[in-house]
Amino acid sequence: MKENKEEQSSTELKIFEAARDVFQAKGLEGTRMQEIADRAGINKSLLHYYYRSKEKLFEKVYQLSIIRVIPQIVSLLNEDLPLDQKLRNFTEKYLEIIIANPDIPLFILHELNKNPTRLKTFMLQEVGKKVQPFLEQLRQESKKGNTVDLPAEQILVNIMSMLIFPFIGRPVFQVIFDMDDAAFEQFIFERKRLLPGFIVQSVMKSNHS
Q: In this predicted model, what pLDDT tens digit does every residue of 188-206 receive, in sequence order?
C-alpha cells in the first residue's frame, strides 16, 4: 500500500531524525539500519524503500545537518561588527546552534578521524577560506594594540576550544561533576551566560573589554 504525500513526508522526517540521532551518536560504521528503523518506528523494508543503503542515508543526514550548520557558524565570524561585539555575538549564537544540535561536534570529530577525505574539501571551502577575514580582523586589532599578544590563529583556536570542548567531553564532565542530563544542560545554559564576557576578556586588552 502506497503512502500518500503527507504520510510520505512524515515518514521521511521520522527517518531523518532517527538517522541523525544514531549517526551523530555512533558514526557511520557503528550504525545499523535496523537500529534506525527501530528508532523511527518503521520496519526495515520501508527504510530500504526510502534509502537503499546506509551510506546513502548517511550522505543525506550529513548534507542536511553538518553542511547546513558549519557555514551558518562561520558566517557569524564575518559579520560587519567591531571585534568585541562580534566575539560576544559569535559566542552566543554558536552556543545556541550547538545546544540545538549537541551531537554535531562529536559527529564531526568522528568523521575527521574515520573519513578525513569526506570533510577535507568541504572544510577547505566552507571554513578555511571563509575564516580568513576574521583572522585578518584579529591581526589589524593586534596592530592597534587592542588584543592580547597572540597570533590570530592561536586566538581562534582558543575561542573554538572553549566553545566545543564541553560538548566533546560531556561524558567525562558528567562523571566528574556528578551530573545527570538535565544538570548538564543547565550547566551549558549557565556557560552560555558567562562565556561571551570571558571570551572578550581573553582576547581584548582590558581597556577594550
A: 999 999 999 999 999 999 7
